[in-house]
Amino acid sequence: MSHHANHQKIRVAVLGATGLVGQRFVALLADHPWFEIAALTASARSAGKAYGAAVDWALDGEIPVPTAGMPLLRAAARPLAEAGVRVAFSALPAAVAGPVEAGLRDAGLAVFSNASAHRMDPDVPILVPEANAAHLELARGQRARHGGFIVANSNCTTAGLVLPLAALAPFGIGSVVATSFQAISGAGRRGLAAYDIAGNVVPFIRDEEDKLERESRKILGRLSEDAVEPAPFAVYASCARVPVRDGHLLSLAVELDRTVEEEQARAALAAFRGIPQEQDLPSAPSVPLVVRTEQNRPQPLADAEAGSPARARGMAVTVGRVRRSGRILNVFALVHNTIRGAAGASVLNAELAVRYGLIEEPHP
Ligand SMILES: NC(=O)c1ccc[n+]([C@@H]2O[C@H](COP(=O)([O-])OP(=O)(O)OC[C@H]3O[C@@H](n4cnc5c(N)ncnc54)[C@H](OP(=O)(O)O)[C@@H]3O)[C@@H](O)[C@H]2O)c1
């Protein structure tokens, strides 16, 4: 897509803009080359207030100036249409997201969602475009039936699992044991009481282990006519919450179909590229998997914001501690849960949809 000085940007909305993922959207879209924020929504508690007055800003830096004064709308088709919005980025709680996102799709919008509500719908792709860009075809079928479409991104932890698995897939994956160490921000702005997590580890995150298992098999599955046939490998997941602000760490034990030397596995991870890199999308990290060779990496504090250029900070997954025993390959992987695991993933998905002609560009 070429951009001339007089080219208008695509008008977008952020749904659930006051939450932690919503705030990430606002920050990532503030100076986006293709998209422009035209509407923000939150719950009825905040409707009508200015964004800057309603939000409890949790990110570094100030609230982007043009957004701070925007009024919070209801997440419904009419107010979004009046604002000229054609693309909605959703950071709604799952229960709210189900009907709201379906309603916006029926109103002809392109919806890019972080919520789990529609992820397992047969005609909704869970898009991680380095791994399964072809699944975006499912959106064309939805568009024919509904006018608009929903594209989901994976659960935050799943993003950290599927990118390394996609790089190792050519060796054949038999099964994966995945153990996670997940950041507090994964539970949302008011998700956990400090008393429960400070100096503690909680070995339970509701539904998370099931999501890792079924989402990763759908993402790495094969697209048939109008659904995805899940990949045949088994996933055994255990998820824990740890007192870290941002960045989910995963320990993976991947059983491969054959013996793969450590050096060969490291090289395959480092050389991994996908369609976003090929297409040079604005939010694509130039290297999606950053391989560290130090003994003590990846770490959330050091590596959560991996990814370049600047727009792709937090979009690379960092892998390290690559070890082999027999056909089992052990690695640690780290994903920024609200960027590659949430808002940044949605923005990348929307960029791919524009590039593939699913979203029309406005004419000057
Ligand atoms: N945090 C992560 O790392 C992460 C990663 C991947 C996916 N997700 C998913 O992304 C979504 C948002 O997560 P979050 O962590 O950002 O949550 P959050 O911090 O709790 O934010 C929720 C947002 O939804 C709004 N909202 C709440 N109830 C609503 C209602 N009844 N109607 C309309 N809007 C409502 C809130 O507005 P008010 O301010 O007015 O309450 C707020 O803007 C969830 O589905 C979550 O599972 C989160």
Let me know the CATH homologous superfamily of the largest domain: Dihydrodipicolinate Reductase, domain 2
Radius of gyration: 20 Å
Q: What compounds sit in this structure?
A: NADP nicotinamide-adenine-dinucleotide phosphate
Overall pLDDT metric: 96
User: What percent of the residues sit in helical stretches (DSSP H or I)?
Assistant: 25-40%
Structural class: alpha/beta
Strand order of the largest sheet: 3-2-1-4-5-6
CATH class of the largest domain: Alpha Beta
What share of the residues does DSSP label as strand, in percent? 15-25%
List strands and helices in order, with pairings.
Blueprint: E1 10-15, H1 20-29, E2 35-41, H2 51-54, H3 65-68, E3 72-73, H4 77-82, E4 87-90, H5 94-106, E5 110-113, H6 129-132, H7 137-146, E6 149-152, H8 156-168, E7 173-182, H9 194-197, H10 208-219, E8 222-223, E9 228-229, E10 234-241, E11 248-256, H11 262-271, H12 275-278, E12 289-291, H13 300-303, E13 317-325, E14 328-335, H14 339-355
Parallel strand pairs: 1-2, 1-4, 2-3, 4-5, 5-6, 7-10, 12-13
Antiparallel strand pairs: 7-11, 8-9, 11-14, 13-14
The chain binds NADP nicotinamide-adenine-dinucleotide phosphate.
